[in-house]
Amino acid sequence: MIFDLNKDKTVNEAYKLMAQTIIPRPIAWVVTEDEGVVNIAPFSYFIGLSSNPASVLISVGHKADGTPKDTLANIRKHQKCIICMVQEADLEKMHFSSKGVDKDLSEAELFGIETETVMEGFPPMIKDVPVAYVCELNQEVELGGGSTIPLILNVKQIFVNDEVISDKERLSIDFNPVARIGKKYAFLGHKIDAPDIP
């Protein structure tokens, strides 16, 4: 079966197909701040773009009423965010933080998500995450319509929890990340060695 997105123009159908076949998608648990209100929201359209310069991409949509989600509005206003990687222990809180709440309410307070400041002038980081990226906005990408805005972010610092560094000399990091597959989540703790190439 072929789904012609130019003919069908069904955004919901395209999302369903892509979300279930481009897998697994890591979750960017994004922290922004405005007027002292800490906003925390997960986004699964997230990927690393480059290590030189260090940069990542997240796609952020709009609310049902057409206004930008708080994450997008805050990044546009302040040009900064912190992206936290999600581990198994934080799955429930991460999922709860996906609920749309009023801009004046903080998901950190509503769902008991502890935060800590790791870099002055940036939003706080979610406490005890395995890895976090301190980011500044590089640019928005115009896709020619639609309500999702891809944001290219430059990574200024990377926080790595000492507990997940298994080998400091080789800089080996081990944790059990959470990813998105369709409407479900997946734990990615199981690793397989690559076979030798003949």
Short description:
The protein is an alpha+beta fold.
Description:
The chain is of the alpha+beta class and 198 residues long. It has one domain (26-187): Electron Transport, Fmn-binding Protein, Chain A (Pnp Oxidase, Chain A). The chain contains five helices and 14 strands. The protein has helices at residues 5-8, 11-21, 70-78, 91-96, 107-110, and strands spanning 25-26, 28-34, 37-43, 46-51, 54-60, 80-85, 115-116, 125-126, 131-140, 149-160, 165-167, 172-173, 178-181, 184-187. A seven-stranded antiparallel β-sheet has the order 3-2-6-9-10-5-4, covered by helices on one side. A three-stranded antiparallel β-sheet has the order 1-13-14. A two-stranded antiparallel ribbon has the order 7-8. The longest helix is centred in the N-terminal third of the chain and has 11 residues, at 11-21. The N and C termini lie far apart (37 Å).
Tags for this model:
single chain, 198 residues, alpha+beta, Pnp Oxidase, Chain A, 7-stranded antiparallel β-sheet, 3-stranded antiparallel β-sheet, 5 helices, 17% helix, globular
Please give the structural blueprint.
Blueprint: H1 5-8, H2 11-21, E1 25-26, E2 28-34, E3 37-43, E4 46-51, E5 54-60, H3 70-78, E6 80-85, H4 91-96, H5 107-110, E7 115-116, E8 125-126, E9 131-140, E10 149-160, E11 165-167, E12 172-173, E13 178-181, E14 184-187
